[in-house]
Write a structure and sequence with these properties.
Shape: globular
Order of helices and strands: EEHHEEEHEHEEH
CATH topology: Aminopeptidase
Number of domains: 1
Pfam families: Acetyltransf_3
InterPro entries: Acyl_CoA_acyltransferase (IPR016181), GNAT_dom (IPR000182)
CATH superfamily: Gcn5-related N-acetyltransferase (GNAT)
Low-confidence stretches: none
Number of strands: 8
Protein name: GNAT family N-acetyltransferase
Domain N-acetyltransferase: 14-153
CATH architecture: 3-Layer(aba) Sandwich
Strand order of the largest sheet: 1-2-3-4-5-6-8-7
Distance between the termini: 37 Å
Structural class: alpha+beta
CATH class: Alpha Beta
GO molecular function: acyltransferase activity, transferring groups other than amino-acyl groups
Length: 197
């Protein structure tokens, strides 16, 4: 039995469905909402590259290296973006939540907060994780602030950690939430979501 198995996670604002090629057109539309692929600090696929990115994630999922989700609005049924469980480590009961992006119109609506609540809840309550990581570019202040607002603590910075498509080097900031912190983090996320209900 693999550590990560496809699962559907349902909230009040957002539903996370296992990624499928059937989601291609909706994901293209979500990425076009804000032309997200043009943001220098993220790696959102362009409309022309969306199919290849979905296929890449599905291959990695088949190899038990990730579990990718498509985020749907519970209110409209519209596709909002993607998020992923990465780097699953069954022996040490750890994983990372990342490769997340959402249409510009979905930002600050509570859907991303609820997505994190659903993913963290599944990781800690169902998969019995002892820690969940988040990673982002050192220069992505918006992402760093959002991760800190979740209640994650910064573990450190991996300097010159990866080479980006343009050849520049990325310093990666690593955050985590550990199991003993999960009850407080969950309460904080629920309180933040109350404003969107």
């Amino acid at each position: 039995m693999t550590f990560l198995r496809p699962v559907r996670l349902v909230g009040e604002l957002v539903t996370l469905e296992p990624l499928s090629l059937d989601h291609h057109d909706g994901l293209v539309a979500a990425a076009r909402d804000g032309e997200l692929w043009n943001l220098w600090y993220t790696a959102v696929p362009s409309p022309d590259g969306m199919r290849a990115e979905i296929e890449r994630r599905l291959r990695a999922q088949a190899d038990a290296a990730m579990l990718a989700f498509t985020a749907f609005s519970c209110r409209s049924g519209q596709i909002l973006g993607m998020t992923t469980y990465l780097a699953p480590d069954a022996a040490n009961r750890r994983l990372e939540i990342g490769s997340t992006w959402n249409a510009r119109s979905a930002q600050r609506t509570g859907t991303n907060t609820e997505s994190k609540l659903l993913l963290l809840g599944h990781a800690f309550d169902e998969l019995d994780c002892i820690a969940v990581e988040f990673r982002t570019h050192w220069l992505n202040q918006q992402s760093r602030a959002a991760i800190a607002r979740l209640g994650a603590k910064q573990d450190g910075v991996l300097r010159s950690h990866s080479v980006l498509a343009d050849g520049s080097l990325r310093d990666t900031v690593v955050f985590s939430i550990i199991a003993s912190e999960w009850p407080a983090v969950r309460a904080g996320l629920r309180a933040r979501l109350a404003a969107h209900r």
